[in-house]
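Appendix B, Record 12. Input sequence as logged:
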Amino acid sequence: MEYSRKLSDFCADLTFNSLDDDVVEKTKLCILDYLANVYGSLELDAVKGVASYIKSLNGPDEATCVGLGFKTGMHNAAFINGTAAEAIESQDGLRFGGNHPGTAVIPAAFAVAERLSVSRKIGGKEIIASIVSGYEAADRPAAAMHPRHTLSGFLPTGTTGTFGAAVAVSKLMGLNADGVSNAFGNAGYILPISMAEQLMGGYTIKIVQGGQAAASGITAAGLSEAGITGMPNVLEGTQLGGGFCKITTDTDPAYERITDRLGEHYTIMDIYFKPYTACRHTHGAAQATLELVAENDISPKDVDKVDVFTYGIGVIAVGKGVTKNDSIVNAQFSIPYVVSVTIADKELGPAQLTERRLADNDLIDFTKKVTVNYDDDLNKMYPEKTASRVELTLKGGDVLKRQVEIPKGDPRDPMSSGDLLNKVIQFAPKRNRDDLKKLTEMILCLETVEDIREVTEMMG
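Logged structural output:
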């Protein structure tokens, strides 16, 4: 079967009017979540460094750099916006693909739409349709390779995110089915490698994967518009065995996932949101700890030790500890840090994942009290459930236990529009509340917006 072409053709034909109301509403929530994550990342030194570099390039005033007060060329605007959306590690995600499509698709779509609106107005309906298409194009290849793509050394947000960004932008450019197919094929040639080991090593270059995918997707679509062709079967390849899915996994991909229920079920409906600023694999432990701390008024001085039990991939991905002045990436992917800062601060938001918080000697010392353990019963639940159990041993010997099997934000225990509005406010404390209210109201009725620049001007 021509999996790639069937997917790109479906995305090319997708229109706003073909979408059910629940898909439209979920898309608007994804945009709200994206906005919260960008604003929440702007105090990070790593993001400030990337923003300073992008600003120094003195690009044209084409597209808004969200929350930064300046505009630049659409590629670089998408790059910094995608980077910021990724950096605080509270971005949306697909459990079945291990990817975070919003950090690539949404910044690419908004940057290009803002630039194109100078010559022809692009409204909210077009943006929504392009984003839904982009999620399909990013999520389905990711699902076909999950989890072997990551275990083979790649991060799917950067790799498959480029497919998503390319498709979303192609639609906004008005490319026909062949044009979208070429953009999809081009994306498979120029997408970033996105080394998983950079993340595991805690290097802050990890945060650019969404931005790099967004910018590369714009390039892939632009090249298609210029007549550059890409292979129509880029995912599955030919008899040569060189398709993207094949060469980036160490086993045969599940190609059928690329087209499974295509047109009947939109993958954006499977997207989870994060209430906390850390890797999703830490969220069961974070939620359990927050509940125990709130119910029992616990502080670090009350705790003798903490045992966290979780599934195998959780131990591998987020079982490591941290050191003083460690990188934010290591902290975001560390159950010992997440549990410790949650006990100390009784919350897990942007303030808990900054370079300044990581410089606290007492906090780092406390992380040594936290042990992460593999649990066979919890592992048997995965990936249906991402379950973790926390056992807090108090100084007097009492042990408090809490197990969370489906962390908050999963579609089975979703964050509501009210939750996401609160997330925007919590993550953007320095922005004017009235302006934020107008912006979020506009996003929640995005289909009525006739010129997307009305929205992007307020994002800056």
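The first strand starts at residue 63 and ends at 65.
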